[in-house]
Design goal:
3-stranded antiparallel beta sheet
Length: 885
Amino acid sequence: MESSAGPAAAPGGAARPGAEGIVSRPRLFGLLGAARVSVVSAPAGSGKTVLLRSWISDAGLDETAAWVSAGRDQRDPQRFWLSALTALRQTAPGSVLVQPLTAAPDLDGWAITERLLTDLAPLRDRAWLVVDDVHELGAEALRQLELLIMRAPPPLRFVLATRHDVQLGLHRLRLEGELAEIREPDLRFTVAEAQELFGAAGIRLPGLGLLVERTEGWAAGLRLAALSLARHPDPGRFAEQFSGTERTVADYLLAEVLDRQSEPVRRLLLRTSILHRVTGELADLLTGDSGGERVLQDLEQANAFVTAVDASRSWFRYHQMFADLLQLQLRRTAPDEVSGLHRAAAGWFARHRYPVEAIRHAQAAQDWMLGAQLLADHWYSLQLDGQTATAHELLAGFPAEAAATDAELAALTAADELAYGSLEAAERYLGLAERGMVSVPDARRGQAQLLQGVTRLVLARQRWNLRAATEGARRLQDLAEAPDAGQPRVDEELRALALISLGSTEFWAAGEDPERHLEMGVALAHRIGRPLLEFTGLAYLAAIEIFRSFARAAEYGGQAVELAERHGWADEPAAGLAYEILGATLAWQMRPVEAESWVQRAERVLRAETEPAAVLGMRYTRGTLELARGRDADALAALQAGERLGGRLAAPHMLLTPMRAMLLHTLVRLGDIDRAEQALADLGEHDRDRAETRIATAVLRLAQDDPRAAAAALAPVLDGSAPVLQWAWLAHAFLLEAIAQDALGDAAAADRALERALDLAEPDGALLWFLLHPVPRLLERHARRGTAHAALTAEILSLLAGQTPALPAGPQPPLEPLSSSEIRVLRYLPTNLTMPEIAGELYVSHNTVRTHMRHLYTKLGTHRRAEAVARARDLGLLAPSALRR
């Protein structure tokens, strides 16, 4: 097929003189890049994008300019920032400095911005970040972009193209002379530029000034006019009649552009107008012809309302104004074909692994079954790719009644309700999904059951309904474990997710073999290249191992954190769980300074609304840490908060008994014996017989000078008839037994019990109980009589004598975790904004900012703004300064 589009350029701006009809515009090139930030703000069709591309080429910035578009496919903030990070990595300076980052569900754009600031801090050579279609960004992404602009190192410059002004707070840069602006009047073609444009198309028009006046120099209008004038029999009359109104341009496009194309080209344009982007193979499918790629390349080469969107010139898009017109004309001329075209496009995009576009075209064709199946096949892949908002938007594109009749769609709606709606609605849709399973084709039934099972587990865990979680886990187990046992096809990503969900639920529900399912899921996730699932499984393995071995718990937790930091998942709940485990191991090992930073990170990430079990564990860890630091009152407050949270759960949490035992112990340490006695009496008989409660009872009895009663309470723990949840508590029991037997005058029994306590403590360095129950005389006597743990005994005696190891070099963590509001204020402190200006940016009062800053100074241990910024940077709460490496 041959395109009848002439050599004239397509609608848009221009670049290089004489190059394929594109006009050089040096008067605008001089404005671009002259300041720290350059903004090109003008309506669609004014030539912004082509101007920027031609400027990059003309200025030789191909190696130093990163280009990112904020178009429709970048509506998720994390997608936009990941694209920006990738673009920067493709520049010469960025390839050295910017580290890779992987998508994740609900990835925080603020975290990516801080990562970029950290990576680019050492930047010395000039680099450019060019953002096209800035108006497409949401409010949060705009604020993140503003923060990046304000705090970026000076060598990084910004060029922004937008259809209208956006809220970026650039007025300060304007006052400082750091802002260059190109607006619609600047982009208007002069008569000389229009003459160059028309001359390149081989057109001489005596009345060109009139045409420029009528179009007000609008680039798209002039280019469309040049395209038509190339074959118009009366150019002068055409110039007189040409109008820039929308209706006139639409009539012009129909009568003077579309109708002048050859029939094959016109057919291609109309039938592919349903697409947001088009490639030759897809064009051939929709037209039933061949050579579509050559036609598209010819149109793009002629700058005729077609633009290549990739470097290889294999994907193209139409100018939006022209695409709208083509779609309207298609509906007028072939209304019965529109649904079929959308259905064919859906199939093509699905086969070529473009699920989002496939689903949108299935919805446009109103093929709800196909759309539901495609969304079910890719739901969790979209989540794992950081496109949670996109998945939610796609689900919203189905009619409300569709979920009532399609079991897979009902299950997806239930999963979506867990994230965006209510638990009650999720329960209702899960019921619909389960009742509708009989209508699911056999080939899809296994995957549908697995999807329902994973959603059911998440719902049960959020409600902390252990009975439902256990039943759901049992139903899910066979499907998750037996991919080759005659089961219907199940996607490996969904199977890995199911295994990890199964293992994590079994862990919280005290199931029989959670680590086996987690290990299977981690191995599968690693094999299929899904690090997010691998990271989640490792975090839960760390949580399991803390009850068996601090060393293995720290190993798994460290692996999880390493993956989180490598891929930008530091704020994911699983990362919070890993932080909690690392903090707990360090607290038990009497390393409170190191533990504090991990516990604070956990407290910043975990939320009781979504992860109640993990938050309860965090309260337990915080209480343990405060005991290790000798802050008994703070430990009591943390443990009481955990106990209150446990009371709101649908079933008892496995940590509730150890937490209550630790609380009793803390009351004794505070000297509140009567209150401890009452708390013990308030427990039921079953709870009083639990091992940890018996150990706390022994602490209470020893405080009451009753070693015989203490020994009696410990006996079932020591003989194993009352098993402990965590081995470290058994070390506690033997230490208390040593104290009790020594008080009863049986030195040999005391030595045997103390040696057993040291046996249990030494492998993982669990020193906490020896510091909470200081018995230096007993330890010294034991050392003299001979022990297999002389080094550990010496270490404990050294700690008891106050010879604590020196604090690690470098800054110490803040005394208290920062709230989300304080973190928001902190991010603006490195700027030159005054306190009222920060208040304006955050839409809060001046006094609110003042209060947050006062709290920041207190928590960071500083007195001035500069000190707070430096301290925050040392702690990793802010990116390093651009002025230092």
